[in-house]
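can u do me a favor
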């Protein structure tokens, strides 16, 4: 009888849960691991990164030890470290809202991303539900896009259209990494074609902007008649990641010391990649054909619709001002959802930032041609549509708007 009782107790006892392990030792990986409770299947973290290298809002971890179908919880707290803003240490932490999307990005292979269930928000935390697959689980602030994704995009584009795609290295970063880009130019006299420059990730944590760039490239090489017309008519440069260093190290990038990439557009840039972009765009302007500059970003947590930032209209020529109004109207007609554009742009001027004259769009306005269009697209990251598919849809729609803008007038 005693033996039978012991056997029954053994059968009723819960199986010891496997130990949970959390790591960040990969490109883009970043977090402060507060606690791992394998018994409760709970992991507590804060955003990682060095505040001197940008806002501490990005986080990206790999979790091991979860069985297939097993439930767990990732609890995220805001950073406790003081943050920089307007070029100075504020003496207080960054608002936790920047780090806490309504749902986290999750992947079984580190390549294909989906969203978790909605997080449960507390006063100083948010808890994301996880479900194991039996293998590693990658979880992040948003769908990561690292130099690996840039390399894959360039390889796919080159294989698909070797006659059009011309990969190049824009610059070597201050830390010795390559800033890779692609130039799309059809056969013919490129010197007579309008030049289009699109780049993303001047702020490293804004990963959705790189996925918008990816969606634009996917559309550009599609069979759509508008895409065919644009790639034959224009010379197009796409830089998927500008701040490669901080993307790789998992830092925020925005307000990094001495300043971030989008406050570096002066006559003496700190970052080689900014200098490289300036040099190439100056060459296009010297040829009289710098037609479009688009800077891709992600905005604040409460900005639930994409919108454009533009420079003060009074600093533009009549031609440039009319061009901008026409493009914004076309964009509103094409970016219709699920991430639908707010048709009212916001203006970056003296009240926006003390270094506003050194923001990329204003630099292009000051150094471009009379007809040059410069704008910054901010794509919302804190919605159920802020996924790789949602971002890529914005990229496609942006391409359609651009094609309409540059299309030759009807005879």
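np, heres the sequence
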């Amino acid at each position: 009888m005693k033996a039978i009782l012991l056997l029954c107790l053994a059968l009723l006892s819960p199986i010891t849960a496997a130990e949970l392990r959390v790591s960040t030792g990969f490109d883009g990986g970043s977090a402060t691991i507060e606690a791992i409770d394998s018994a409760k299947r709970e992991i507590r973290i804060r955003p990682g990164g060095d505040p001197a290298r940008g806002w501490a809002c990005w986080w990206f971890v790999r979790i091991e030890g979860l069985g297939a179908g097993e439930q767990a919880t990732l609890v995220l707290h805001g950073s406790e470290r003081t943050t920089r803003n307007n070029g100075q240490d504020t003496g207080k932490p960054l608002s936790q809202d920047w780090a806490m999307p309504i749902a986290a990005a999750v992947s079984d292979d580190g390549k294909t991303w989906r969203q978790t269930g909605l997080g449960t928000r507390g006063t100083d935390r948010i808890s994301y539900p996880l479900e194991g697959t039996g293998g590693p689980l990658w979880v992040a602030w948003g769908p990561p896009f690292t130099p690996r994704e840039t390399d894959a995009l360039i390889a796919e584009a080159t294989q698909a259209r070797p006659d059009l795609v011309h990969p190049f290295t824009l610059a070597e970063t201050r830390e010795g990494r390559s800033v890779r880009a692609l130039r799309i130019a059809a056969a013919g006299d490129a010197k007579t074609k309008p030049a289009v420059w699109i780049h993303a990730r001047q702020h490293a944590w804004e990963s959705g902007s790189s996925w918008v760039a990816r969606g634009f490239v996917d559309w550009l090489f599609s069979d759509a008649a508008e895409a065919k017309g644009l790639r034959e008519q224009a010379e197009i440069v796409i830089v998927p990641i500008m701040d490669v260093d901080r993307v790789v190290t998992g830092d925020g990038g925005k307000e990094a010391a001495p300043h971030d990439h989008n406050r570096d557009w002066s006559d003496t840039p700190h970052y080689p990649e900014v200098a490289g972009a300036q040099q190439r765009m100056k060459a296009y302007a010297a040829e009289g054909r710098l037609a479009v500059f688009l800077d891709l970003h992600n905005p604040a947590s409460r900005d639930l619709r994409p919108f454009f930032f533009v420079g003060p209209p009074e600093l533009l020529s009549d031609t440039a001002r009319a061009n901008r109004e026409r493009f914004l109207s076309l964009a509103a007609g094409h970016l219709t959802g699920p991430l639908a554009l707010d048709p009212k742009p916001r203006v970056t001027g003296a009240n926006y930032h003390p270094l506003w004259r050194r923001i990329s769009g204003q630099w292009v306005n000051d150094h471009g041609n009379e007809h040059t269009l410069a704008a910054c697209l901010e794509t919302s990251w804190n919605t159920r549509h802020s996924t790789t598919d949602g971002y890529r849809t914005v990229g496609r729609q942006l391409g359609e708007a651009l094609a309409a803008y540059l299309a030759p007038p009807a005879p």
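The domain at 147-406 is CATH 3.40.630.10 (Aminopeptidase). hope that helps!!
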